Structures are given as C-alpha cells and as structure tokens.
Amino acid sequence: MQTSAQNNSQAIVIDDKALPAVKCDECGAKIYPPSLLPPHLARHQRRQHWFMKELSKLQETMAHMRDIS
C-alpha cells in the first residue's frame, strides 16, 4: 500500500523518508534540495541559448549555399 508521501509528485522517497523537492516545469525532473532549482533552470537557459546560436549558424550556412547555386 502506498503512503501519501509516495503519491506526492513534489517529494522524493528514499528508504521510507519523503524529502521535499521541487519539480522542474521544463523537463519534469525532481530537484532536491529545492535551492538547486535556480541553477537547474539557468542550465536550461544556457542550453537553449547555445541551441539557438547553433541553429542560426546552420541557417546562415544554408542560405549561403542557396546563394552560391
């Protein structure tokens, strides 16, 4: 039988102990302790920035290749 702590999506259960956690809205990961959420979200932002920069480079390359042909 499950306890209410195991049903709570905001807690991590280890050895029948419920640890308070926060859930990342971006990826759904549970973060413990909750104070680590801001660095986790910053990593999402850095990754998104890197992805957009790489996509921009690729788009510029493709546009250049279309202009040549």
Descriptive report:
The structure is a single chain. With about 70 residues, the chain is an alpha+beta fold. The chain has helices spanning about 5, 35-69, and strands spanning about 10-15, 15-20, 20-25, 30. About 50% of the residues lie in helices and about 15% in strands. A two-stranded antiparallel ribbon has the order 1-2. Strands 3-4 form a two-stranded antiparallel sheet. The termini are far apart.
Structure classification: alpha+beta
Distance N to C terminus = 67 Å
Radius of gyration: 21 Å
Strand order of the largest sheet: 1-2
| Number of helical regions | 2
Q: Note the overall shape.
A: rod-shaped
Q: Beta fraction of the residues? A: 15-25%
Present the secondary structure layout.
Layout: H1 4-7, E1 11-14, E2 17-20, E3 22-23, E4 30-31, H2 37-68
Q: Which terms would index this structure?
A:
69 residues, alpha+beta, two-stranded antiparallel sheet, 2 helices, disordered N terminus
Short précis:
With 69 residues, the chain is α+β, with helices and mostly antiparallel strands. The protein has two helices and four strands.
